[in-house]
Design goal:
about 55% strand; about 110 residues; single chain; Immunoglobulin-like; mainly beta; three-stranded antiparallel β-sheet
Length: about 110
């Protein structure tokens, strides 16, 4: 399964992760999931203390990267290392601001 998201270089998104078995039942984790951005010049990550969510914030740069989340699932007495990733496309915002500057009024003469 492929996961991807797109947002602009002035935005951020919240992401939640869950870990389940092949039947869709939650699995226990050993430790806290780790998050990593392949290109931290495109996005920064603010990961929640429990590792089950993060804020993905654009740095202002434009491009494509991926974010990997890894953990160790506890299946019975066995620890299984698992990881998955999602692609992030950061596009230009298209926001253009126009500002005007005015001088002090003066005589026409």
């Amino acid at each position: 399964m492929s996961f991807e998201t797109t947002f602009n270089n002035l935005q951020l998104i919240d992401v939640e992760v869950s870990f389940t078995d092949s039947l869709g039942q939650p699995v226990s984790l050993f430790g806290i999931p780790a998050w990593e951005a392949a290109d931290p010049t495109l996005v920064s990550l603010s990961v929640a203390d429990d590792g089950l969510s993060a804020v993905v914030r654009s740095t202002g740069a434009i491009g494509v990267t991926h974010v990997t989340v890894s953990a160790t699932a506890t299946l019975g007495n066995i620890g299984v290392d698992i990881a998955s990733a999602f692609d992030v496309t950061v596009e230009a915002s298209g926001a253009v601001l126009v500002t005007f500057s005015f001088s002090q009024p003066r005589s026409r003469s």
